[in-house]
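Sample entry (615 residues):
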Amino acid sequence: MSHIASPNAPGGSEGTTSPTRAQPSVPTGHGDSSSHPGDSLAARDTDGGTTVTSEASSPSPSAGTTPGDLHAAWTRTALTPDGGPSRPVSPSRPETPEAPTADHEPSLSIDPALSALPKPERDDTPSAGSDTNTDESSDLPPPPPAEQLVVIPDKKNPDEELVLGPDGEPLEDTSYVLDDPALGLDDDAPGPSTASGADAGTEPVAIPYQPDAGSLRVLRSIAVRSEPRQDAPPLGTVAQDMRILWKSETAMRGPECDAWVEIQPRGWVCERYLERNFREPRVRDLPRLREGELTPGTYARVVGKRVRAYPSLALARTRRKGILLKGSVTVKLRGQVRVGRRTFWRTTDGQYLEARVLREYRPSTFVGVDAEQLSELSAPFAWAQSRTKPSASVEVKTAPDAKAARETVLPPRTLVAVKELSADGRWVLIAENHWVSRDDLHVAWFSHAPPGVEPGARWVDVDLDAQVLVAYEGERPVYATLISSGKPGTDTPEGLFRVWIKFAEADMTGNGTAGNDTYRVATVPWTMFFEQDYALHTAYWHDRFGEPTSHGCVNLAPRDAKALYGWASPEVPTGWSMVHATQDAPGSWVRIRGQARIPVKERKVRVATSTRTLR
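Predicted structure, serialized as tokens:
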């Protein structure tokens, strides 16, 4: 569970707040109630492809071993970490009327169709504080080079400076605001006293609006209103420097604004925040990614004791007027400045930190499977990844017995078929004479939409026990991936929810209460809040997907978060940094069910960060 830091909260107050909203109507009962009957997805015929075993073919499961039977057996034999019975889970899709045949089954434990998928990768860099040297070589392309900034200080005022970006243009630190402050009048504009009592509080009046311009440039990130008045519900936020179009030749004049302009594709913005521009319209998807980037920019963790951030380069060089950073702090880096032998990084909020106190995060390259890939997989399937040693290879036995001979090993996060369950429920057949421990599999069980979800609606199913997310369009699964949910003490809430607000990027904080650590995480990309301040979002700071390790939110690998952010409702207009769900454009449903399983053996937390100092 995280709190979003709003730089400009409603009413003009500053500080850290949690977003507020009107609660959507939710059907009675949670998503782990009974599902509708129906047909399961059938696997496509496949042949050929690379496998990890020496067998040439695999027989079909025994008669009656269907996805529905497998799930029923899985549920009956499930055990909690203390050995007791598991909590009930949502039933999977019922089986097809006809039992599957050998012609419709994948040939081995890995479907042949998977041979073309990206190979599973994990970031196994040691945790912070480790003195172990790491091999920097990788098959991945190197990240884009850091942007070099030019800082021109004001000699009379060390707090002021002019910062130029790589293109030589002044750098502006922009922020995505939850709402705009009260629309105060300009100093040289007539005050409210000039309006007569009859005019004060009246409805907006239509006025002609025919600007001689090619577009309207947004002067600052500003809320887009549903109606031409200050107290109208916000639809979202259009980002600074976007060049947008107006919709009609009529604007609306009201007590708070001389001209409310209706913009494309929807909503109203006060003209005082728009500048007429001769250039063509230009809007971009947010957040912006440079070629080769997994996340929008460079992120780093602050290390060391009593580290201070400085408001200008001049003050950073002399170590004066620094702000003491408390708790765990993650920053997003805007660019670097070299001064002699010292290197300073400028953060996106305009502060400076010396490179020696920063450790760069390397985001996870893991990615789930999309609709096309899902259509080629058997149901159910699983990711092979140990719960006690997630970075270790997974052993495959010749029989469902821990003492059986080892047939082979699978790299972590290998996709495998789930064919049959052993009598004691502890082993899973993935191919002929190839058995894997149940605890080493994260199974994607397909299920029906919970009651109340509209036919054809986009919804997300999060299985806390398996640490797996499956996205659906109606009854059709279109995406599946591993997630990281809340750890003990900061559990992810169960139930049926709706996405109520989406942010291209959002700062998140923890204040040390309710079992949380004190932390501040900068600009988390592709964030979707579904219940108060619980969200689905990117986790660029770890590669522990498949393990419960968050503060309550549902963590996703960067490519998964980006794909789901663009797919889920409500749709975010291009150039907008935030959007609210509304009655006309409701958010996607999110069902969270099950209970996260925690490995009995404690292990040291690993973060996806290099051990080298930023230079």
